[in-house]
Amino acid sequence: MLCATVLVAACSQDSNQPATGKPMVDRKAAASARKGPTAQEQTAAMVSAASPSKSNVPVSLKFELQQRPVAGNALEVDLAVLPEIDADIASIKVTDAEGLGLAAADAAFDVPDIDAGEVYRHTVHLTPAGDGVLFLGVDVTLKHDQIDETRAFSIPIIVAPQKVVAPQAAAGQAAKPDSTLAAKH
Questions:
Q1: Which residue has the higher pLDDT, 80 or 42?
Q2: Residue 121 domain-assigned?
Q3: Residue 17: pLDDT above 50?
Q4: Which domain holds residue 104?
Q5: What residues have CB less than 8 Å from 131, skipping those under 6 apart?
Q6: Count of structural domains within the chain
C-alpha cells in the first residue's frame, strides 16, 4: 500500500515545475534555425592562410587577391576572419615584407562583438615596389573571458615584374622584315 501511494504521488507531480540541471539543447534544431550560407560556403572561393606555428587559437584566416600582383600597381587583398568561439573583440595587425607598400590605414583594425561561425571581412591595400615572392603577415588576437589569444598567419604574394612596352609597339608600328636578308637566301 505504501508503494502504491508513493507511485501515485510521483505520477501526479506538476509537470510545469522547472527542471533541475542544464536544459538539453537540440543541436539539429539550432543548426537548422541558422539562416543563410555557412562560413565555409561564404568563403569557398578563398584560400586559407598558412599559420607558421602550431597554435590552438580557435580562429582561421582566408584571403583572396582581386587581381594579379604586378610591381608598381595597386593591389587589394580581401581578408576573411573565421572565429570558432565568441569574443569581445578581434584585433588584427597586418605587417608587410619590405617592398609590399601596405597602406597605413590597413596596418591595424579591430572588429567588436565576435560571434563563432560568422565571417568578418576586411580589404587590405598594397602597392608592391618590386617583383618576387613577398609575405604579408596577419596576427589575429581574440579577446574573450579576460584572455588574449593570438594566432599568426602568413600570406604569400607573388609579384610579377612590371611589363615594359617597347617604343615601336607603343606607337603602333609593326616591325618590317629585313628584305636584304630574304634576298640573299
A1: 80
A2: yes
A3: no
A4: 38-161
A5: 71, 159, 160, 161, 162
A6: 1
Answer whether residue 106 is part of any domain.
yes
Give Cβ neighbours of residue 30 (< 8 Å, ≥ 6 apart): none
> Which ranges in 105-147 belong to alpha helices (H)?
none
Counting every residue, how long is the chain? 185
Q: Residue 77 pairs with which residues in a beta bridge?
A: 65, 124
Domain-located, residue 29: no
pLDDT value at residue 34: 56
Burial zone of 182 (CB within 10 Å; 0-12 exposed, 13-18 middle, 19+ buried): exposed
- For 69, 80, 115, 144, the CA distances from 44, given in Å and listed in that order, are 21, 11, 19, 27
- Give the type of residue at 56: N
Contact 136, 94 (CB under 8 A): yes
Phi-psi region at 172: left, alpha or beta (left = phi > 0; alpha = psi -120 to 50): left
Flag whether 127 is in a domain.
Answer: yes
Three-class SS state of 176: coil
**CATH number of the domain encompassing residue 70:** 2.60.40.10
